[in-house]
Amino acid sequence: MAKVTGIAALVFLLLGCIPAARAQLLSGYIGGGTATDSSIGPIDTLGAGTTYPTPSLGGFFQTYGGDFIFFHGLGIGAEDSSRRNKGAYAGLQYRASFFDVNAVYRPWLLKGRFRPEFQAGYGRADLNLYTTPQICTILPQGCGAVNGEISSIRDSQFHFGASIRIGVYRGAFVQPQFDLRRLPSNFSTYFGSSFIPQYSVNVGYMVDATKGLEWGEQIPSRVGKHLPHLHLPHFPWP
């Protein structure tokens, strides 16, 4: 939740810093999919001569993101994607997550419901490892808390993304997306490659922050004067 709040704060900060004449499209989205990587093979988790199999990276990853397009299809965005549930890892459990800030380009000369989008940026990857009852019974000192976190591995990442934003109704859209992440050091010690592809489908909403409110009923003036002017774009998108 903290990362989601951070994404929203970043996008709205940029909205306030860019002159209104140039501000254009503000979007938020949620979605899900999977990230994949190969296994590194069996490892001796405790260093006691007993090996455990390591998994390939997978499972369901939930995604939250937002972007702000402010000049001829160019903008900035942020995205968080994390494995929803813990997975087994060599007698332990793990959860992986990725966070990145990106330059975003949505070709502004292309019109209609189908709009390609490209992202490139930098961020971090986190791999958290947790104890299991199986491991706790083996450790001489036991575990302070079963399923407690015992290690947190952090790595930098370079991120590239490509997607198609498909307009559904007014500002609503569906967005199939492909991401490729390169993690240069720590993360690749636990999985088989430093390149991690991710496949997801997002749903979201887009508003034009430079125009008046246009969604049916008028907001009373005593309330509306305290709200930003938002326009829900009709298709074809501008």
Question: What would CATH call the class?
Answer: Mainly Beta
The total strand number stands at: 9
Query: In one word, what is the shape?
Result: elongated
Please state the second-level CATH architecture: Beta Barrel
Class from helix and strand fractions: mainly beta
Portion of residues within helices: 10-25%
**Unreliable stretches, pLDDT < 50, 5 or more residues?**
212-224, 234-238
Main beta-sheet annotation:
8 strands, antiparallel, barrel
What gap, in angstroms, lies between the N and C termini?
A: 32 Å
Structural domain count: 1
* Average of the residue pLDDT scores: 79
Instruction: Write down the Rg.
Output: 22 Å
Strand order of the largest sheet: 1-2-3-5-6-7-8-9
Q: Helix and strand string, N-terminal first?
A: HEEEEEEHEEEH
Percent of residues in beta strands? over 45%
CATH topology: Porin
- Treating each run of at least 4 consecutive H or I residues as one helix, how many helices? 3
What does this structure look like?
The protein is mainly β and about 240 residues long. The protein has one domain (about 1-225): Porin (Beta Barrel). It is built from three helices and nine strands, in the order αββββββαβββα. The chain has helices at about 1-15, 135-140, 220-225; strands at about 25-35, 60-70, 75-85, 85-90, 90-105, 115-130, 150-170, 170-180, 195-210. It has an eight-stranded antiparallel barrel. Mean pLDDT is about 80; it is low at about 210-225 and about 235-238.
